[in-house]
Structure formats: C-alpha cells, structure tokens
Design brief:
14 strands, PRTase-like, UPRT, 213 residues, 10-stranded mixed beta sheet, alpha/beta, transferase, GTP-binding, nucleotide-binding
Length: 213
C-alpha cells in the first residue's frame, strides 16, 4: 500500500494485484468477473474502513459482562455510481452489513466525455454517515467529481472514494477537485487513450459485470 499524495492510497497487496490481473483478462467471464469485483472491493474496504469510529458497549459473554468496542454513530452509507459501481457494493456490505445504500446515476456524453446526472437518492441523515462512493474505473474523473459534488450538496462530509483501476489523469483531477476526501485505488494504470478509456485497463466494467455490450 502506497500513499502517493495526501488522502490518496494505491494498494500493493498481492491478493488485490492478483485478482485485478484476472479481471484484465478478456477471457474472464461475467460470473467470475462479478465475483472478483466484489472480492477486491472487500479487500480494499478492509483497509479503507480502518478509521471507522468506535464506542464501547456492554456485552454479556458466556463468562461475564464486559465493555467491548462496536462501530459508533449513524453507521455507513455505500453510494455506487451507476451502474458499474453496483458491482462493488456487496463487497463493502460483507464488512458492514448495517450500512445503508444510496445511488447516483450519471451518464457520460460521448463527445465531451462530461458527466450528466439522471438519478440521485441518498440515505438520511447523510451528514452523519461515513460515505463510501464506489466506481470500479476512475478514468477522466468527471463522474467521480460530479458524484462527490452531489453528495456534498446534500450535506455529506465524511467521504471516501474507491476505484479498482484508475488513470493518472482522473486521479489527479479528482484529488485536485476534492482534496479533502480519501481516495483508494486498487491499481494505477498508464494513461487514458483518445476515447478516454484506461490503458491497459479491462474494457468497460459495467458491460463485463452485467454481461451487456
């Protein structure tokens, strides 16, 4: 795990890197691809959630009563960017089953590559929650920036962004636009191509998760 800049973490764990390599393979089918996305999200989430607040609660064990730590406050919210971000949700929920789930729908203009909102539904009270925004691919950064903009407009404060693969251009743009959020990246790829696809990347994550073209 490397810290590239303030609030930006790029993972180097062998299990994450191994699973990402299988994701890249064009021969990896939908079922395996979907399962790997969940597994990687869970592995990344284990580290990304290390600063969740705790409070001591009273529990009765078979031996005695004791005070023991549990997650404090209004738990978490997982907010996938539709539709590919949905693939990472269950991996996070496996760690924190009590988390609420919001959704942000964005589509990218094929000519300008800029995002447009078509749906936004967030759990309330969003300002009291740790918010994990998920999107497997951080390409231009436009969708990620827009999603975080929307969450902040609704009052969200404690925001983390998780992507499995990022392009340097998108990571830089997101960090400059929102230097206060924590960004977690599974692998930092080489560059974007002329069509704003990450190289070497893994193709269209949404199509590969849901088996569409």
């Amino acid at each position: 795990m490397d810290l590239l800049m303030d609030n930006v973490t790029v993972f180097t764990h062998p299990l994450i890197q191994h699973k990402i390599s299988i994701l890249r393979d064009k021969r990896t089918g939908t079922n395996e691809f979907r399962a790997l996305i969940e597994e990687i999200a869970m592995l990344m989430g284990f580290e990304a959630l290390r600063d969740l607040p705790l409070q001591d609660v009273e529990v009765e064990t078979p031996i005695e009563t004791c005070m023991t730590p549990m997650i404090a406050g209004k738990k978490m919210a997982v907010v996938p960017i539709l539709r590919a971000g949905l693939g990472m949700v269950n991996g996070i929920l496996a760690l924190v089953p009590s988390a609420k789930v919001g959704h942000i729908g964005l589509y990218r203009d094929e000519k300008t590559h800029e995002p447009h909102e078509y749906y936004c539904k967030l759990p309330s009270p969003i300002e009291q929650r740790t918010i994990v925004v998920t999107d497997p691919m951080l390409a231009t950064g436009g969708s990620a920036i827009a999603a975080v903009d929307f969450i902040k407009q609704y009052g969200g404060k404690h925001i983390k962004f998780m992507s499995i693969i990022a392009a340097p251009e998108g990571l830089k743009r997101l960090h400059e636009a929102h230097p206060d959020i924590q960004i977690y990246v599974g692998h930092l790829d080489r560059q974007l191509n002329e069509n704003a696809y990450i190289c070497p990347g893994l193709g269209d994550a949404g199509d590969r998760i849901f088996g569409t073209k």
